[in-house]
Design brief:
The complex is a heterodimer. Chain A has helices spanning about 40-50, 70-75, 95-100, 105-120, 120-125, 135-150, 170-180, 195-200, 220, 225-230; strands at about 1-10, 15-25, 30-35, 55-60, 65, 80, 155-160, 185-190, 205-210, 210-215. Chain A is an alpha/beta fold. Classes of the chains: A alpha/beta, B mainly alpha.
Chain lengths: ~230, ~290
């Protein structure tokens, strides 16, 4: 679904990740693991179009979106869910959803799509008219996730969705990522927590200092001692 | 004394409405892009000049209304084009600041063009409505018209920013630009649209207020200053702030001219600006906000 070929990206002239190649497949959750500063966020930002890659290619279902603006990337089907439960604080929950549904045409279509997610996350329906800033961190993350899903992406890039939210809500969010994958979507899950991420994902890759050090099936990596060594800096 | 007070208030509020409209126009662009369009003063004067050049001496009400729309549309397009050019070289309008120079440059170009076309003298625009008496003060009708325009623009902007998808998206840009990009909003297009809206406000304001503004090559700077102070007093990016800030500046300007003389007007206004920035930097209605770095 999403092919990444020898991607190098960073800020200014300084590369943060270099020579990354990976395949993200439909129907699967791919975990991207790594310690703080490994380059995980830079990688997904480059994939989502928020930073322009310096070299390499990004293809979505065969279409080249290397260096495309996020407005193009999202419409091509790659949507980045930023870290830190970010929503538009001074818009109502409803307005947050409305402007996120960039691919839905009619109002009716939008309402139907919303109703689908209101069933999964009833809290959003309850707080529909409230400002997003009045929501808890976890509720904001649910809103942010729903925003991302509303643009009906093919590939969902999630940057640390478990950070800064109540532990009790993490399973709800992971379950919805699994639902999205089982409907044929591809998920890239960036996380620092090894065990939790490997449990929910199908494949995983481990990054360190800007490159991929290890990759494989999540179930195999679960018992692989090399992950711990990479985290600890060998 | 009562008569002087009446003059200060009636004229001050009328002038204040013009400053409020400039502040509203500042805010629309600032919300979407973080840019302060310093060419706004001269754009307003340009609209006034167009009113003076296009209107025949005995302009009828219907022709006047048509010309108002024409000038409004012309400046909508012109300022949208200015916005597109200002934004073109920028990767991020909040992290790069070449707009400081490019908006100033546009201001200088407009001022110089007016000087070439019109000479250094102020011109007056014909008006189809006679003056009226308010609280015993003879008041040019333009002050009333521009106050009505302020109310209209304020209500229209509120509805636009809250109810329409484009408007809500523009408010979203003001709240979190990076998130707006990740959401897939067409950020540049929305920013150009907001420049266009600002142009519409300035164009119609300059036209409607033409008889009471100074239409001269060097008067843009005083409008930009007063409009900017009005926006800062009210709180940058806040529409209610712009609505209230304008009349405060207008009345202060009139009373300082009366008490100390016209040459001290700007001194008083700048002192007001400094005082507000020291005591309440977010302005009357502004809220502190966090910024992602």
């Amino acid at each position: 679904m999403l092919s990444v070929e020898a991607l190098t990206a960073g800020y200014g002239r300084i590369p943060v990740v270099s020579d990354i190649s990976m395949e993200v497949e439909a129907g699967r959750i791919t975990a991207v693991l790594g310690a703080n500063g490994a380059g995980k966020t830079t990688l997904v930002k480059a994939l989502g179009g928020l930073i322009r890659p310096m070299a390499g290619r990004v293809l979505i279902a065969g279409r080249d979106i290397t260096g495309a603006d996020p407005s193009t990337a999202t419409r091509a089907g790659v949507r980045l869910l930023l870290d830190g439960h970010r929503v538009f604080p001074d818009l109502s929950v409803h307005d947050n959803l409305k402007i996120a549904a960039i691919t839905t045409g009619s109002r009716r279509e939008f309402e139907l799509l919303c109703d689908e997610y209101f069933e999964v996350f009833p809290i959003l329906k309850q707080k529909r008219k409230d400002y997003a800033r009045t929501l808890s961190g976890g509720q904001q993350q649910i809103l942010a996730l729903t925003q991302a899903l509303l643009c009906q992406p093919k590939v969902l890039l999630c940057d640390e969705p478990s950070i800064g939210i109540a532990q009790a809500l993490i399973p709800t969010i992971l379950k919805e990522l699994r639902n999205f994958a089982s409907r044929g979507g591809a998920v890239v899950l960036v996380e620092q927590q090894i065990q939790m991420s490997l449990k929910v994902s199908d494949t995983a890759l481990v990054m360190d200092r800007g490159s991929i050090r290890l990759s494989g099936l999540a179930s195999d990596l679960m018992s692989d001692d090399r992950i711990r060594k990479i985290y600890m800096g060998n | 004394m009562a008569y002087e007070l009446a003059i200060i208030f009636v004229r001050g509020l009328g002038l204040g409405a013009i400053y409020s409209l400039i502040a509203l126009s500042f805010n629309v662009v600032y919300m979407s892009s973080g840019i302060l369009n310093f060419a706004q003063g001269n754009i307003l004067v340009l609209a006034g000049l167009l009113a003076a050049l296009l209107s025949p001496p005995e302009v009828s009400v219907s022709l006047w209304l048509v010309l108002m729309l024409v000038v409004g549309c012309m400046l909508t397009l012109a300022v949208a084009a200015q916005g597109a050019m200002t934004l073109a070289p920028l990767r991020s309008s909040t992290e790069q600041h070449s707009w400081l120079v490019s908006t100033m440059a546009v201001s200088v170009i407009i001022g110089a063009s007016i000087l070439i076309v019109q000479g250094p003298f102020a011109v007056t625009a014909p008006y189809p409505f006679p003056g009226v008496r308010i609280l015993g003060v003879r008041t040019p009708f333009a002050y009333l018209a521009v106050t009505a325009l302020l109310v209209l623009c304020f209500v229209a902007l509120q509805l636009f920013l809250r109810r329409t998808r484009t408007g809500v998206a523009i408010s979203a840009l003001a709240q979190d630009l990076e998130l707006a990009r990740a959401t897939g909003l067409r950020v540049r297009l929305l920013q150009v649209v907001s420049f266009g809206i600002s142009g519409a406000i300035l164009g119609v304001t300059g036209f409607v207020a033409a008889p009471v503004i100074s239409i001269a090559p060097d008067s843009g700077i005083s409008y930009i200053l007063s409009g900017f102070i009005a926006a800062v007093i009210g709180g940058m990016g806040n529409l209610y702030g712009a609505l209230v800030g304008g009349p405060i500046v207008g009345v202060m300007a009139m009373s300082s001219a009366y008490l100390f003389g016209g040459e001290f007007q700007n001194l008083v206004l700048l002192t007001l600006l400094v005082a507000v920035l020291m005591v309440r930097p977010q302005g009357l209605f502004g809220r502190m906000s966090t910024r992602h770095v």
